[in-house]
Specification:
The structure is a single chain. The chain has 214 residues and is mostly helical. The chain has a single domain, classed as Four Helix Bundle (Hemerythrin (Met), subunit A), CATH 1.20.120. Helices cover 66% and strands 0% of the residues. The chain has six helices and no strands. The longest helix is centred in the C-terminal third of the chain and has 33 residues. It is globular and about 55 Å long.
């Protein structure tokens, strides 16, 4: 039950907004933040160089690592806190966090499937470029929404856990979002590679490079 200090059944914060729970809860928050507010951002920047054979592979491996680590620690925490039977005893904010986490992890699993399908269709030369582009966008657009949802889930967790932690994570998310939105400008400024996958009139769409233009 939620006590007079505002802590949930697991015991997370006191009236002074300071951490009062066990180390597992803190580890959970740190690992989830690293996974969804750092690793996935690195994966997004890596895939900018997807004209390189290793970039997409590295993108997939980083995302898989983030998903696996996030899921593993979440399951450990739920088990240690008594399983789903304690859900009704949680404060509303933690219920929201829990539900968002389930949606995020389930969605991430689907993203893994669409990502694999997108790459597999490229090995079939008879697949029309439009189909490849459609699959690419089916993976890309929901992927952006998923990452925003994951970051929101982290922020909800930090909101009641630590005000300072919340603002630090929020600031970091805003910074990485701005860097990604202006990634082409940064890439053009830092390197001369942007011509090969952006704005080259002679760079034609084929079944092999259709995804690169997405």
């Amino acid at each position: 039950m939620e006590n007079s200090t505002g802590a949930s059944a697991g015991g997370m914060i006191g009236s002074n907004n300071k951490y009062t729970g066990d180390g597992l809860v803190l580890a959970h928050g740190i690992v989830q933040t690293i996974c969804w507010c750092l690793l996935v951002d690195i994966a997004l920047f890596v895939v900018i160089l997807r004209h390189k054979w290793w970039a997409v592979l590295l993108h997939a491996l980083i995302m898989l690592l983030a998903l696996a680590a996030s899921l593993a620690l979440a399951l450990i925490l739920v088990k240690q806190k008594g399983g789903l039977s304690t859900f009704e005893d949680l404060a509303v904010i933690y219920k929201v966090h829990f539900i968002l986490a389930i949606v995020t992890l389930s969605w991430a699993g689907l993203q893994l499937i669409t990502g694999i399908l997108t790459r597999l269709v490229q090995i079939f030369s008879k697949v029309h470029p439009a189909v490849i582009l459609a699959l690419s966008w089916l993976h890309k657009v929901p992927g952006y929404v998923l990452i925003l949802l994951a970051k929101a889930t982290c922020l909800v967790g930090w909101w009641r856990f630590s005000t300072v932690g919340f603002w630090i994570v929020l600031g970091w998310c805003i910074l990485m979002t701005l860097l990604y939105l202006f990634r082409w400008t940064l890439l053009s400024w830092l390197t001369s590679m942007s011509r090969s996958f952006r704005g080259d009139p002679q760079y034609k769409i084929t079944p092999q490079n259709a995804v690169l233009n997405a």
